[in-house]
Task: structure prediction
Amino acid sequence: MKNNKNNYCVIMAGGVGSRFWPFSREERPKQFLDFFGTGRSLLQMTVDRFRPLIPIENMFIVTNVMYKQMILEQVPDLSEGQILCEPARRNTAPCIAYATAHIRALCLQRAYGYTSEQGYTKDGKVKGGSETSQLPNYLDIDWSKPEMQANIVVAASDHLILEEEKFRETISKAFDFVSTNKAICTLGMQPTRPETGYGYIQFINERSRSELNDAAELPIAAPTALNEGIYPVKTFTEKPNLEMAKVFLESGDFLWNSGIFIWNLQTISEAFRYLLPAVADRFREGELLMGTEQEEQFIEEMFPKCPNISIDYGIMEKAENVFVIPSSFGWSDLGTWGSLYELSDKDEEGNVSLHSESHFYDAKGNIVVLEKGKKAIIQGVEDMIIVEEKGALLVCKKSEEQRIKQFVSEL
Result:
């Protein structure tokens, strides 16, 4: 599988993982933890997953400033410049806009050369530029230059992928598609149950496409995409109730929203410019400070002013050129104790014990996670989460685990 110098990866790793309390704490959240005893954290597993596809120097991790040193320790072949630190939490759209601006700046530097005093004004002109300026106006960028042909995959740091080779084949397919089509691409997981914890993507498959009277209703490149197993997206739906999730499962044209995105640098730059200018304009003036000593100060001053908005709401639900690849490679959004329970080996009564030695009597469907070396006897309980870590104990019904975040906020 080709490792392409034009391929880039953005890993979002700034969350605090409060739903995995007390195992996950703000000072060391879930992406830095080894859940399965493999010796690799979720972040390390994510980086390893992309190594065959993407040069390590083209990987960027966006995180909170407090986790920078932890990342350098866990992924020592990253440079400090590849860790993009957010001074405030502003959801996924500003996070991705930051990484996009950083990558675009690096590509522009290689394509045109630059001086550290230069940047772009909101209307796309070179700040302090002249007729001899090395940089083009933003609107005059020659995107056909080889240095500007960046294809980017954006993924979270806490996903679990069981069939990694199949995953990489799917990402390669998406890279090929976005490099030749002005399209935003996402991966949709084939649903196996009426899951209420995931968002859903409705796509236009061959059957539903034949029902459309006017092919112009389809996004650009649709006929080619359909032949390749890549489909136009019709709607995004937030987490449904159980009855609606059952309808989605039975319909055959809904997929789980994985939150994995693939696009070309020009496509996503234009999407931010036209669909989310409130975010794009924040980065425009200082993007050529990226990769210089002035980047940190610029981000410190500007980033907290960004609106708190998700990429789904800001871009994906508004864009008309969104496509999805139906996928199945053992994906899980490791977001809750319940999702970890589903992925773990169980005894005959459906009990899970991790990191410790637990003995179950008249107990069913429990997950127990204790510090290494500890033993526990669990008797007479069903469908419980029992977790002990560093002097804190959680005992919670699995059916009530969505309340854990609330409990932690009240501590």
